[in-house]
């Protein structure tokens, strides 16, 4: 079952619609959009060469509009190229998985276009996700320059940071062979599940090292705030050394938003496009559902006084029973498979 959760996370994807910014297009009535399906665990620069090739003949000045100068935005906000795609989508759309996705109207000239959405709900995220490709006015105050090695370097640095956070030392990642280190990034680029986890399991199960903490980042789309924590695997101050759950961790890191360790009150914790159960043991959640960079990237979907619990059975399970109850892996797999687009 653990492998089923990992596989469901790995196979998650998001449909994209990329528009070329009109000011950079030599065609008066704008270029056609580019559609593609992106892996949630991947990074936007992985897809940039094919996107650039599609729009290349529409560019006004190819000498200026180069791959190195490319950047994406949505609603006038630059997209962080060093964030995993799944995190970008959950954060920038403020996705509420309990809402019905909003589909665009059917284009009857294109038989493969999606049908009209059935009664979309307010706050639902649209699919495909529409983003804009730009080259001019690179937001250097917000994004570092994208070079051929930028994505690799950012990813490996994150791997090292997560490893140090877990163990209090970077011994596990530093002891990887050069070929294993290269394989981490190459397998992610190639979207090769077996190769990636073949190396990652060496980090999570390194001889002589016991995982002490869980690296976690919490993102609030309403404020833009990012809270990073290194949460112990066991709850401090408990007589039996109770296992840390997602609920106890969130209550510790953001008590104002999560005053209860058992039930969601003000926000839903979202990762990989689903609402996570507060009862999930944090160590197990990390081992089976972390992002490839080693972090649990959790976005907050604010509830806006919505007290309807009927839409998400995972959310319902979060408020049932003991805080330390085991993560219902079957439910998590089912929810992940349901939300895959």
What does this structure look like?
- The protein is an alpha+beta fold and 341 residues long.
- The chain folds into two domains: 2-151, Ubiquitin-like (UB roll), CATH 3.10.20; 154-339, Roll (Ubiquitin-like (UB roll)), CATH 3.10.20.90.
- The protein has helices at 2-11, 48-55, 85-92, 150-167, 171-174, 178-189, 193-204, 246-253, 282-289, 313-318, 329-339; strands at 13-20, 34-39, 71-74, 77-78, 129-134, 213-220, 225-232, 267-271, 274-275, 296-302.
- The strands form two sheets. A five-stranded mixed β-sheet has the order 2-1-5-3-4. Strands 7-6-10-8-9 form a five-stranded mixed β-sheet, with helices on both faces.
- A hairpin with a 4-residue loop joins strand 6 (213-220) and strand 7 (225-232).
- The longest helix has 18 residues, at 150-167.
- The radius of gyration is 21 Å and the shape is globular.
- Residues 100-121 are annotated as: Disordered.
- Belongs to the ATG5 family.
Radius of gyration, taken over Cα atoms and rounded to an integer in Å: 21 Å
CATH superfamily of the largest domain: Phosphatidylinositol 3-kinase Catalytic Subunit, Chain A, domain 1
N-to-C series of helices and strands? HEEHEEHEHHHHEEHEEHEHH
- The percent range for helix content is 25-40%
Q: Helix/strand/pairing class, anyone? A: alpha+beta
Instruction: Please give the number of β-strands.
Output: 10
Main β-sheet description? 5 strands, mixed
Spatial shape: globular
Point out poorly predicted stretches: 106-120, 306-327
Number of domains: 2
Give the CATH level 1 class of the largest domain: Alpha Beta
């Amino acid at each position: 079952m653990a492998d089923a959760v990992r596989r469901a996370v790995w196979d998650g994807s998001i449909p994209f619609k990329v528009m070329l910014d009109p000011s950079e297009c030599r065609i008066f009535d704008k270029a056609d959009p580019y559609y593609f399906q992106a892996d949630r665990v991947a990074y936007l620069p992985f897809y940039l060469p094919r996107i650039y090739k599609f729009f290349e003949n529409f560019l006004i000045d190819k000498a200026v509009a180069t791959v190195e100068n490319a950047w994406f935005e949505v609603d006038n906000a630059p997209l962080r190229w060093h964030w995993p795609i799944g995190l970008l989508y959950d954060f920038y759309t403020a996705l509420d998985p309990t809402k019905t996705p909003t589909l665009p109207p059917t284009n009857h000239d294109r038989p493969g276009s999606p049908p009209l959405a059935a009664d979309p709900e307010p706050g639902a995220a649209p699919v495909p996700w529409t983003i804009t490709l730009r080259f001019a006015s690179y937001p250097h105050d917000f994004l570092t320059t994208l070079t051929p090695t930028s994505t690799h370097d950012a990813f490996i640095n994150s791997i090292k940071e997560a490893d140090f956070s877990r163990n209090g030392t970077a011994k596990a990642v530093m002891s990887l062979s050069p070929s294993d280190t290269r394989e981490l990034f190459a397998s992610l680029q190639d979207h090769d599940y077996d190769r990636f986890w073949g190396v990652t399991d060496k980090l999570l199960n390194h001889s002589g090292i016991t995982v002490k903490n869980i690296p976690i980042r919490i993102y609030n789309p309403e404020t833009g705030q990012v809270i990073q924590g290194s949460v112990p695997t066991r709850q401090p101050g408990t007589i039996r050394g109770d296992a840390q759950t997602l609920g106890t961790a969130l209550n510790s890191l953001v008590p104002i938003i999560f005053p209860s360790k058992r039930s969601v009150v003000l926000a839903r914790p979202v990762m990989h496009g689903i609402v996570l159960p507060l009862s999930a043991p944090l160590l197990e959640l990390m081992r089976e559902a972390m992002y490839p960079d080693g972090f649990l990237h959790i976005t907050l979907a604010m509830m806006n006084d919505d007290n309807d619990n009927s839409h998400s059975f995972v959310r319902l399970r979060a408020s049932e029973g003991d805080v330390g109850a085991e993560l219902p892996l079957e439910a998590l797999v089912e929810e992940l498979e349901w939300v895959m687009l």
